[in-house]
Amino acid sequence: QENVLQRVLQLPVVSSTCETLQRKYSSTKESHPLMASVCEVYERGVQGAGALALRGMEPVVRRLEPQSVAVANNLACRGLDHLEEKIPALQYPVDK
């Protein structure tokens, strides 16, 4: 079954944007030692917050019926189909 998040991440405009941001971020960290230490602290904070959010959401996700999640995913996929149809630029990398 399709997963809307995977589909969004595979859109050329999204994947190329993520790649560009990752390159810039890595380049900045390598070029500026002070910025690298700040970024590392930030990264650890984000990882901790993400883990905490995941633990907090787990009971909610467990209570949702799998059918509800599937329905929401299907609706989101249909919405994405509509966006892809109406906005052809989503099929091109950022530089184009």
UniProtKB/TrEMBL annotation:
A GO biological-process term: lipid metabolic process
Subcellular location: Lipid droplet
Gene Ontology CC annotations of this record: lipid droplet
Protein's UniProt keywords contain Zinc-finger: no
Hydrolase found in the keyword field: no
Source species, domain of life: Eukaryota
Coiled coil: none
Keywords carried by this UniProt record: Lipid droplet
Family to which this protein belongs: Belongs to the perilipin family.
Protein name, UniProt field: PLIN1 protein
Upper lineage: Eukaryota, Metazoa, Chordata, Craniata, Vertebrata
